[in-house]
Structures are given as C-alpha cells and as structure tokens.
Amino acid sequence: MDVSRPDATGAAYPPEPWDLHGRSVLSVFLVPAAEAPPAPVGVRPLRLFGRVVVAAAWVAYTEPSPLTYGELMTTVLVREGWRPRAHITHIWVDSPASMAGGRELWAIPKDLADFTLDDAAAAASAYAMSIDGTEVARTRLGRVRALPLPARLAFRLAQDGAVHRRPGLTVSPVRLRTPLGLARATWHVAPAGPIGFLTGRRPLLTLVARRFRMRFGS
What domain of life does the native source organism fall in (predicted)? Predict the structure, then answer.
C-alpha cells in the first residue's frame, strides 16, 4: 500500500482502509462506573450492575500490514442511541505514522510510547509499555488454550471528532477474523499512570489472537 499522506508533522500514513495482520492479547474488566474513563458526547457507556465493560489489549501488527508496530489500548463498550459501539479511551503506539493516521483518519487519540515484547511459540507471553522510561503497564500470560472455531466480528468505533478538529462523533467500521485462544493474564498497572483505573483488577476473561486479519476504516 502506498504510504503517501503526511500529517501536519510530516509523518506519512496509508489511506484507509488499513488491512492489518498480527497478534493480540485482550483482557476484559468490569470497572465501577464512577472510576471508568469518560465517554464522549453522543454516546453512553453500557453498564452492568453499576459497572462498565473495559477491554485492554496489546497488539503487535506484523507484515503484510501497511505499517508494523506495537500498541496498547483501552476500550469501553458504549451505545449511540441503542446502537452498540466501541470507544477507545487510551491508546499508545511506537510508530509516528500510525499515530498520525489514527488521529487524522478516525479521531483515535494515539500517542507514542516504548514497548517490549517477549515471544513464545508465536504468541505474546509478556508485554510491557513505558513512557519516558516510566512503566505504565505490563502483562504476563499463562498457558493459551485454543478455541475450536475462528471468530468473525464486525463493529463500529465511535470517537470524539475533536481529536482531528471535526465536530461530533467519528464513526468507523472495523471487521476482524481470527482464531482465538483463552488464557490467564496477570496485569500490573501503575496506580498513578493514565490507565490507573485498572490497577489491582483481575480480568474476567482474556482472549489471545495468534494471527488475526482486520480491515479498519471505510
């Protein structure tokens, strides 16, 4: 894919859609509504007994993706009216081009950080992320147990258009296909860090995608 669209800083990024490949670890948490990150105007968090569903995911995008990079993000399940959406509250990457494209194309508030990844048997066994030398989060996995059927998922992302200087919500389609596995994950999150709302929490569920394919954007 031609990487030819620079942002204001000169970082070039591919036009949408991005056909992405890689592997991921995603943990699901229930966070008290009063402690969960806020949603933008136009959507409301989906609540379950006074708690908000928060997913935290490590992603390694690999070839033949148009860009290859690491990523950590937290996502909240929300609704736009009665339509379910996903909303990314925090996200970091180690690629200036990904940061620029995410912000300009889909209003995803990407920032830069440093990642370390320990690989074992083609699946991520440990991730860590730091900003300016200060660790924000790290995760270690136990044994991964494969599920019998691959997952196919289509959903829409709802982001605050102010990230790329546009009014209202920016809604973007995402399609994902991947085999999945289950694993136990231990998260260590800095209490004073930007995702401190996950400090000390155990995930309800952790899914591992050893090789996903995702189309992001229109």
Answer: Bacteria
> Rounded distance, CA 22 to CA 15, Å?
19
Separation of alpha carbons 85 and 14, rounded Å: 24
The domain 5-216 belongs to what CATH superfamily?
Answer: Acetoacetate decarboxylase-like (2.40.400.10)
Give the type of residue at 162: A
In angstroms, rounded to a whole number, what is the distance separating the alpha carbons of residues 21 and 177?
10
Joined tokens for residue 59: 């992603």
This prediction's pTM: 0.92
Query: Cα separations (Å) of 94 from 23, 101, 112, 114?
Result: 16, 13, 5, 6
Q: Where are the domains of the chain?
A: 5-216
